[in-house]
């Protein structure tokens, strides 16, 4: 079981760093499907709590690599981080009080919407554009989804910075990775206070994520921007389908 948990973290770290995610789109559904195979029941809230530590690990490991590559817009990241941190605290509290089915459904709908936005902008030329005034409130929403769903906010942050902020996809991914680590600290503290954080489970996920994120950050520069967007979108669609089937397929 420990090896399986580390493997989940490793996959999440690679994909998280490549796509600017916290890895939660992999960690949350994967833990929910993998853990029962070993006779260990896990609620979606516990999976989300463990994912917050994975998000922190991606932020630390992936952001360090992207800073070395000069892809992180640090000033933009520091300006937007307060919005995601406040949103993250709100979302984490909601994650403790909302029913699991509601959280899973919101998660799936968010993934579908983010995939739609990225596919719609698939052919958009990667040229710098002036940012929209909607960026700050959209980043607050990203923080809420981060806390509520344990996904690092990258599924919202990357499309927001790319489509609304006018930032090229590679820099949007790098800056999202930079911001998510700051947001995850507060989120993890809320879940710890709520008694939902399994430290041993989170440690296994984080170990795999730390290794995977370093590998993913190195691979990202070798993948064309259009392929990044397409792969990101397909991953979101697959994960959304898994969650909807689990919680609604047998209703």
Low-confidence stretches: none
Helix content: over 70%
- Oligomeric organization of the protein chains: single chain
Total strands: the figure is 0
Question: How would you describe the shape?
Answer: globular
Task: Please tally the helical runs, counting DSSP H or I stretches of 4 or more residues.
Answer: 10
Mean pLDDT: 80
Largest sheet: none
Strand percentage: under 5%
Structure description:
- This protein is 78% helix and 0% strand.
- The protein is globular.
- The chain has ten helices and no strands.
- The chain is mainly alpha-helical.
- It has helices spanning 2-19, 24-34, 44-69, 74-97, 100-120, 135-149, 154-164, 169-193, 199-220, 225-248.
- Helix 4 (74-97) runs parallel beside helix 8 (169-193).
Keywords:
251 residues; mainly alpha
What's the arrangement of secondary structure elements?
Elements: H1 2-19, H2 24-34, H3 44-69, H4 74-97, H5 100-120, H6 135-149, H7 154-164, H8 169-193, H9 199-220, H10 225-248
Helix pairs in contact: 1-2, 1-3, 1-9, 2-3, 3-8, 3-9, 4-6, 4-8, 5-7, 5-10, 6-7, 7-8
